[in-house]
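Example for tutorial group B:
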């Protein structure tokens, strides 16, 4: 990567689209991973709430409302800045988070999307505590997060529209990696 500047990549996208797969690939390129999900899981445990997607949404919205919309990613950004790593901040779900990171400079937002049936089969396959849901609940959860207008809530649709780069993850892992490589070449050339 570029030795002259720290690069921060934010990852947004629909549920089960492959954000973690993009993160895994970027880690092989020397990026350090900072996870909104892990940040929220720690907070959920502190609050003794059940570990599920509903708790994640409630806690994230509460922190954004009580602090400010970009609070969670600001905490993760500060950790990355201290280490001066090229970094990935995964699970950007709010426009305030994007604004916070864009104001830092050297920030690029990647959005990942795929067909809903493909995405659902992926979340079932990963067997996470927060993913033990029916297809109907999966679609309902996504509907709650896709188009909110309050500043402290999730708005995946608006975040995807703000992305610098869109990754289509409907085909193979190799195809996704090729897309990522092309994007990294553009970023490095900047």
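The residue assignment follows.
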């Amino acid at each position: 990567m570029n030795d002259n500047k720290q690069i921060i990549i934010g990852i947004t996208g629909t549920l089960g689209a492959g954000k973690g797969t993009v993160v895994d690939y970027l880690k092989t390129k020397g990026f350090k991973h900072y996870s909104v999900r892990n940040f929220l899981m720690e907070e959920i445990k502190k609050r003794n709430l059940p570990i599920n997607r509903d708790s994640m949404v409630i806690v994230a919205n509460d922190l954004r409302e009580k602090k400010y919309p970009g609070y969670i990613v600001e905490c993760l950004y500060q950790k990355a800045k201290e280490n001066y790593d090229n970094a990935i901040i995964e699970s950007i779900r709010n426009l305030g988070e994007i604004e916070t990171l864009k104001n830092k400079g050297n920030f690029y937002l990647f959005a990942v999307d795929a067909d809903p049936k493909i995405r659902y089969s992926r979340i079932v396959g990963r067997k996470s505590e927060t993913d033990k849901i029916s297809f109907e609940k999966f679609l309902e959860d996504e509907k709650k997060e896709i188009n909110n207008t309050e500043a402290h809530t999730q708005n995946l649709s608006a975040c995807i529209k703000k992305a610098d780069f869109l990754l289509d993850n409907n085909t193979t892992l190799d195809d996704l990696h090729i897309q990522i490589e092309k994007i990294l070449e553009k970023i490095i050339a900047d």
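Residues 16 and 97 are 20 Å apart (CA to CA). Compare this with the pattern of hydrophobic and polar residues in the output above.
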